[in-house]
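Researcher: Here's my situation. A collaborator sent me these components and asked whether they could plausibly form a single complex. I don't have experimental data yet, so a predicted model of the whole assembly would be a useful starting point for our discussion.
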Amino acid sequence: MDRLHHIAIQVWDLAEAVDWYESHFGCSVAYRDDTWALIEFENIKLALVTPGQHPPHIGFATPRAADFGTLTRHRDGSASVYITDPAGNSIEVLDSRTLGPSKAA
Amino acid sequence: MDRLHHIAIQVWDLAEAVDWYESHFGCSVAYRDDTWALIEFENIKLALVTPGQHPPHIGFATPRAADFGTLTRHRDGSASVYITDPAGNSIEVLDSRTLGPSKAA
């Protein structure tokens, strides 16, 4: 069975949003810069993205990612392709074989 | 650490969307009626919801759900409250103690 690797939702004030999620839920901030933050929950990662930087989307991890299109290699070694589902939702399909154990969740 | 219990995204043609997710990913349809469907992935559930029935949202499971507001009990025994994060994203906070083992993922 495939996994959902992460979800990216849009926020306007990144600092305010990170503070809110950290103070309200048991989670930990894995990465943060001026444009986005990545928050780890037990079973999945939640990305908080600011407008114009990264589109809101959901990211799936599957060994068949290349079936969806040409994969782009990212700085962390992972490879993925962005597509849309039939309803127009933005989907990132990540090659699960390029995700280390710590990235798999 | 808290869990993300489910994600609900909006689709326009439910049959088309269910077929697309089933045919493209390793997943299984756990529930389906005329207004929405629930698709299980290895680590989380993806709800496909039609406009006007259920808002797109992300659902967190935490034992401290009651801290967020008055919980509503659902037909399956789970209890939750809908709120918004500071950016206006719709959030469902589910009481993790009302989720059975099969619902926890």
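Model: Some features of this prediction you could bring to your collaborator: The first strand of chain B starts at residue 3 and ends at 10. Residues 14-24 of chain B form the longest helix (11 residues).
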